[in-house]
Amino acid sequence: MPKPIILTSHPRRRAADMPALDWGAADARQRGPVVATLGDPSARNAIGTHAGSYALYRALAVASGQLRADHRPDFRNTRPAVPIGPFPAWSDPAKIVSMDPWGHLAPEMFADAIAAGRDIRPSIAVTRAHINMPELMQAMREGRLAPDGEVLLENGDACVTKIAIEPVWYLPGVAARFGIGETELRRDLFEQTGGMFPELVTRPDLRVFLPPIGGMTVYLFGDPAKLGVPQTRIACRIHDECNGSDVFGSDICTCRPYLAHGIEACIGMAQEGGVGVVVYNRKEGRALGEVTKFLVYNARKRQEGGDRAEQYFRRTECVAGVQDMRFQELMPDVLHWLGITRIDRLVSMSNMKFAPITESGIAVVSRIPIPDALIPADARVEMDAKKAAGYFTDAVPDAAELAIAKGRGL
Ligand SMILES: [Zn+2]
What we know:
Blueprint: H1 28-31, E1 47-48, H2 55-63, H3 106-109, H4 111-115, E2 124-131, H5 134-141, E3 158-165, E4 169-170, H6 171-178, H7 182-192, H8 199-202, E5 208-210, E6 216-221, E7 234-240, H9 243-246, H10 255-271, E8 275-281, H11 284-287, H12 290-302, H13 312-320, H14 333-337, E9 342-346, H15 351-359, E10 363-367, H16 380-388, H17 399-402
Parallel strand pairs: 1-5, 7-8, 7-9, 9-10
Antiparallel strand pairs: 2-3, 3-6, 4-5, 6-8
Helix pairs in contact: 6-7, 12-13
This protein binds zinc ion.
Zinc ion binds near residues 242, 245 and 255.
């Protein structure tokens, strides 16, 4: 006989099983666990489930009989490689609304409930790694970086703490961040996902949502124990994913060169006794996705007059309807989670990033633009367009300059 389908759209009879969630409470136990697992529907106090978009692969694994739907993770030895926090912002319900500040501590903080059979999972994992990039080797050869045996090794390895973070949205806080009502937000999330999560509109008692989107990875350079100490100097690069450039070195944009430059600045800061922070957000193609991005590339390169800066944003808008969907409003959360109250060197020219950081209460001491020598030839179009649109720069290109085609044809 087929298993009955359990609809999630209305409260279960045993709603008493649902742990209370007090977002912004002073400690993890008071706040309560985020229960977004699927084994015990009456215990769920969140909409959606873990692993972001990868939850769909989990469905395939279950559907194809390769994963038991009731598999419980064994968390032995998985605890964070270094401690992070707690910091004061963790108990401010308005400062962090798009991730669970206690997400890395869930197996530890709720060990008793897990031992008693409740399926509670972490939404953050903290580990250590070595990274090695040819740009760092080049910086060493050119004398901009020197190995110190701790942050940067002779072979070019940089030693990092890396932190994977799944999105966990506190819906009232996300709505407030955008200045809209929670009901409107829930309705659009429901409708624009093709009705994927009915609880968004039927269960106002569930206020936390794990959206099926990419999360982020933090790379820390230097001693993480110095985070949250006001004297600690911080270098920071907030980087939004660009697979074509970041991984494959595609030359139409400045993403990988800027990322490498940010990492160089972070290593430098760590060697001076501070901490370097790279935040890597899965927001491919300004969060428009890679298909849209490649369509825009074609439209730019095929347009009459060739690929030029004056038409750069217009071509994106023609295809996507907007220029950008990254919504940097939520971006500062991770900085508050890391206990950061001041960034001494922000490796970014973007006002779209600068404004939400400073408006969220983090002071920015200096901003570091990308050195001209690192900009690939085909990326001049992008750079000029962004400078003209208000990027932080001392040389804004004029209209005549913007009208010159600088990009390669198809
Ligand atoms: Zn790019």
